[in-house]
Sequence to fold (241 residues):
Amino acid sequence: MARLARLYAPHTPQLVQAHFAQALANISDPTPVDPLNQLGAWLRECALEHHVTLHGWALLPDSLTFLATPQQRPGIARLMQAIGRRYATRLKAGRVFQGRYRSALVQPGNWVLPVLVWLDTLPVQHGLVDLAENWPWSSAAYHTGLNLQAHTWATDHPDYWELGNTPFDRQARYRALLTKGLSHDQRQQIEKHLFGQWALGNELFLSNLAPIASRRIKPAPRGRPRKQPQSGKALNGPESR
Fold:
């Protein structure tokens, strides 16, 4: 089966995830502080270099996940390639990532905030911390106002700004979203579309996106297409003479 082409649409946020071929540390090992710090620095440098606007991120020992809006069509791919090249210099042999990275286009207004909550809580889901804000290598502390100075290169998505009129309001309401968490259906939808590499949004969003996207944005219907009746033949009964 042929690989899907990269999905891109102008001015549309993308959720991106890649798993490392070799984890930065084993589960039983201490947290790999220096490698995670280095990975964060690479993400920042490569995003700036390739004109990718970062809205949220989660760096784990086994994976890299972020939500971003590329300013140019090849921005995400070039960012990932640049991180891969930097990482490869630290390896004695082998690949950097487990195959290709996965990505999904995300509908603003409906899905950006749930996606941010999903990625900011990945460290909690993996049992690395009890509170999302306590993981230094995600955007949770930034979004809740606990660590703003360390991430001055981040850019809030407009959906985040809609949470309140002041930074305090936005941070407090985002903290409430983290505490509440996502429904099972929301998590399932995000992970399904990320794994399948499709656009995540309602039908209006998809219909507006389809003409400007780089490829098909949702799976094709299953089964063979219906045969259309041939011109000049009756729908019922034999051909007229």
Summary: The beta strands are 14-19, 52-60, 63-70, 102-105.
